Amino acid sequence: MAQTSGVEHSVHIIPADGGAGAGAGAGEGELVATAERRLNCFVRYVALIERLGNALGTLAFTWATVVLLGGYPTVLRSDNDKNDFWFATIIFFLEAFRMFSRNNRADYKLFFGTRGAFRLLGWNWLVLLIVYFNGVVLCFPLLSPVLFLPLLGILVAIGQFLFPGARRLLARIPLWLRRVISLWSPVIAISLLLGAYVHQYSLSKQQVNENPYQTYFQLRHYKVAICIAYGVLLVVVLLVTVSRMRFAGIIKLADSVLGSKQEFWRRVVLNLCMIGAIVTAAFSFDIIDIWYIPLLMIVVEVSTIVLASFGNFQVPSAVLRVVLPLVRFGSISHDYLCKEDDDMGSHAPAPAPSGGGCNPSIINLTPSLYIFYGMVLGQGALYLVACVVEIFSFIPRRFLIRRGGFKGQWGVDSINLYYSYDLDKCLERNVLAPNISLCKFAIVYLNSDSTKKQLHGIRIAHTLLQREPTRTRLLVKLKASTKTMTRLMRMLHQENQATIRFFAAKVIDELAKSLLVINCPGIVQNVSLLLDWGNNQHKRVNPLLDDTDEEQEQKNDLSVNAIGNRTERGDAVGDSGNLLETQESSTQQIDISNKKNSWITKQWRQVYEFWSIPQEGPLTEQDLLPVIGMSIIESLVTYDQNNCSEISSAANLIRKITRFTRFCRTDTNYTDAEKKVLVHSSLKLLYKLTSIDGEIGITLRHKISQHPFLLRNLSEVLGDITSNCETKKVASGIIRNLAIDASMRLAIGRVQKIITGLMHAFLTPDEPSSSTGASVSHSEEALRKVAGQALAMLAIGNGSNCLAMLRQTGYSFIKELTKLIDDDRYTYRCVAASLLRSVLMHARPDVKETDLKQLSYMVLGRILRADGEELEIFIGLSSHIYEAIPEELAKDFEYSQIKVTFVKRLVDALNANMEPNADCPGIMRVILEQAIELMKYDSSNTVNYFRDLHMIEVLSMVEETILEAENYTIFMGDVGLMEAGEPLSSLVARAKQLLDAH
Asked: Which residue ranges run through the membrane (predicted)?
């Protein structure tokens, strides 16, 4: 694994054009950038207001310290309602506490942060408030309502944010128990109110016994109304709770009643019931003798809910800063008159030097107080404005969530974290020009030591990589940091953090599309770990070689059962449930009828679409870690061939990839759909590796061919009727690439099932349906082409493979190839011609001459029209046809009178291909072979034709320019493969000899 270095270095980057990011388009990318700029501007605005308030607060603190409390400590009034001394002292300590807490960010956020000054109450908090008020109602007769109720409400509100660790403690409750609490807590909360009603009913009966004639009818109607309201609330909440139970019958009934809106209506009904329960609790008192109690309870309830909505002390302290100056502004001038004050008595100081009647000790005190209270008022007003403005931060945040592609609750949490981070940075440094972006935020969190921050950082990075322009910017930043790349590599090792590991793999998959392995050492070894996921089943060992005791084997089996459980993947992106919250989505889409196109419906749809959060889709088979790992390796191979050297040298990597090519029906770690995806991914990667040219390609093909079960697995894929055409195509492509080596052609030929599968795909393709009019798909055409190429490669230089193809039952092999040679499609006719050429070369006795007669004239016509590789293939085929049926070909020459034209075509082609070409390296060889066959059979006329066309001079030129490259049949890159039998110089000598002999 790459070691962490303190030195940052740049990485060579070429932005990837493909992928999801490129598909998003420039227009959508501009919307993302606009949404991010809007949120940043909003943050700067809020931070600017808060910092102005902080500045005024600091000035007020200094003014109170130096001017007021320091200069006028004995003059400031503190009697009756003239409390300037105490007001200044309160503000002094309040501001001192704020300034002191700035050194501790957590304390400052808790008490004085604008972010989170208000919080929205969900129905979960309403449930707790109902329980609280139930206790208040039960305990009210025993306690004083004047002092106890407000204090209890304030204590509940303060306890909400003073003890945030309580939620984390409750989060440790098992998930099933949290679901039970979430399901039944509303019912329990409503049921607890029954005690209050019973208590009040007993008190009312006692009052009726004492005064039956005055109170009976009034209490009866009042209590009946309260009981009816309570009963309705209980029944409604119970029905909603039952509808949330996960039973088939209940789910079906709820769907039929509520349809797709059921989650939306459940939450609406529960919230209304909670509010109704709070009001009902307030009116459960006796309103005859103590009529003011319901009003007092309503005031206390509203006050407590408001206090519970405060996220910290910022709003109360801001209100205090506003109220205190307003209380004193009107009376400052009256309290500190510029004259001798009778209240000063004998302690009055001497007259002022100016000779006036003012007391020198209070000179400038009035304007000083005005300045002081003005600064405090401005500070409080700015804080209130900042808090109110911050409430509307949900608009740019929600806009960024939707435009940025963030989904689910984690997306909301991530943008909220970014908003807090942005605000903190703006408060710490220059608010007008902070260099903050989602890309930097993702990298900061990704490099954090906190698991929670790493999770948000890696998921944000994955989201940003899905579209431009954030994709390009983030790729640059990620690759430019050794620390970040090392952190990503380490995340692949975190088997106990499945979600982080999963998204780290997804991010690396995007990086690999434009990454050089040399700039990220160890990436192949780290990615190789992903291929071990789900492969922890106990390995069977030969009894003669097994040295594991039974106890250790049992431990291994237990470990396998724990690790191989498929719930690991299911929990990879799942959000853990919170206490008193359901597991159902809170943002389920509302089905709005398309039949109504009224203005109200359109506006509602727009509002709902803006407010709703897109939900995450379920994981698919493509999200398996081995699939992602193989996709990473494939991207590295595709981007730069130099990456293949480390892939080739990685220990056991080829073996791990090849292991997935087997569709093992006894493997219980994966479903059938997952197995098919794994097989396709491994075959696709092997196809890419076997297609590499150069020396590294030879090495890779050799290592891949050494796997003992590869050919068997490939034969199973070709013979499996459930495999799709794309999977069979890549399997055929692997066979074609491996068949470049002569020893592999022999090995593949021994697996008869491979040749059978290839011939079936090539010679019996799916025909278009005449009834439906459906045409053959592109994937089926591609499979047919690659299968034909594989057969052609297997036939080169291998007589046994050619005989196996000829002897396959159910095919008229030569006739089928003849039809394909006459096909208008270039690839099919070239593949068929090459295959037939090899068959005639190695298995001519098994070919009927009648099958070749109709082919000879067709081949001659193709030679006169073809060029390049096609010309090489058809000239090679014609030479073997001429060798097999020379008389028939001579008749064709005479009948069409094209012999002179044909000879001229050969000489012209020889002149045109004097320079070696990797696309058709054997064209001079096949031309010379054809010329030799013509001169051998019809020596007199043909030799004269060649002499008239200066064939001797042309042969001399060929002899002077013979290169080693012309002795190869196929080139991959600059490396020649499959050497030809007879050297080109020997063919030149034979042709000259025939020309000189006549």
From this structure: 52-73, 85-101, 122-143, 149-170, 182-202, 222-243, 264-285, 291-311, 370-395
Task: Give me 171's structure tokens.
Answer: 């989060």
Number of domains in the chain: 3
Please provide residue 163's backbone torsions phi and psi, each rounded to the nearest 5 degrees: -130, 65
Neighbours of 579 (CB within 10 A): 17
Q: Structural domain of residue 887, as residue ranges?
A: 859-997
Give ∠ CA 99-101-102 in degrees, rounded to 5: 70
Residue 140 has a CB neighbour count (10 Å cut-off) of 20
Q: Which amino acid is at 216?
A: Y
Contact by Cβ (8 Å): 953, 941: no
Is there a single domain that holds both residue 837 and residue 866? no
What is residue 732's predicted lDDT score, i.e. its pLDDT? 93
The verdict on residue 781 lying in a domain is: yes
279 and 170 share one domain: yes
Gap between the Cα atoms of 984 and 295, Å rounded: 111
**Buried residues in 516-529 as b, exposed as e (16+ CB within 10 A):** bbeebbbbbbbbbb
Closest CA to 829 of 805, 804, 861: 861
Give the integer Cα–Cα distance in Å for 865 and 874. 10
**Within the chain, how many helices (H) and strands (E) appear?**
47, 2
Question: Given this model, what pLDDT does residue 630 score?
Answer: 92
pLDDT score at 109: 53
Same domain, 151 and 292: yes
Q: Which two tokens stand for residue 269?
A: 């009904």
What residues have CB less than 8 Å from 224, skipping those under 6 apart? none
Question: Do 175 and 271 sit in the same domain of this protein?
Answer: yes
Q: What is the DSSP letter of 82?
A: B
- Give φ, ψ of 976 to 5 degrees: -85, 140
H helix runs in 211-247, sequence order: 212-243
Last residue of a domain, one of 311, 346, 361: 311
Q: Write down how long the chain is.
A: 998
Say if 730 falls within a structural domain. Answer: yes
Instruction: Collect all residues with Cβ–Cβ distance below 8 Å to 356 and sequence separation of at least 6.
Output: 338
Both structure tokens of 561: 């059962």
Q: Which residues contact 623 (CB under 8 A, 6 or more apart)?
A: 502, 569, 572
**HSE-up of residue 395 (Cα within 13 Å, Cβ side):** 9
Q: How far apart are CA 624 and CA 617, in angstroms?
A: 15
Tell me how far apart the terminal alpha carbons of the chain are, to the nearest angstrom: 73
The reply to whether 961 falls in a domain is yes
Amino acid present at 286: D
Tokens (6 digits) for 499: 């979600």
Structure tokens at 559: 């470990």
- Cβ atoms of 244 and 179 within 8 Å: the answer is no
Cα torsion 711, 714, 716, 719: sign: negative
3-state SS class at 79: strand
Q: Are 932 and 924 in contact (CB under 8 A)?
A: no
User: Residue for token digits 């608010």?
Assistant: 431
Asked whether the beta carbons of 903 and 945 are under 8 A apart, the reply is yes
pLDDT at residue 344, as a whole number: 45
What are 710's two structure tokens?
């590869």
pLDDT at 554 (0 to 100): 46
- Calpha distance 714→737 (Å, rounded): 13
Residue 728's pLDDT is 92
Structure tokens at 178: 């949290």
Domain assignment of residue 235, yes or no: yes
d(CA 968, CA 975): 9
Residues of the chain with pLDDT under 50: 1-25, 100-101, 103-104, 106-107, 110-111, 158, 160-163, 213-217, 287-288, 339-357, 537-538, 541, 550-596, 768-774
Classify the C-alpha dihedral 68-72-75-78 as positive or negative. positive
Orientation of helix 826-842 relative to helix 813-821, angle to 10°: 140
Q: Which helix (H) or strand (E) holds 853?
A: helix 849-865
**CATH classification at residue 716:** 1.25.10.10
Q: Kindly report the number of other CB atoms within 10 A of residue 608's CB atom.
A: 14
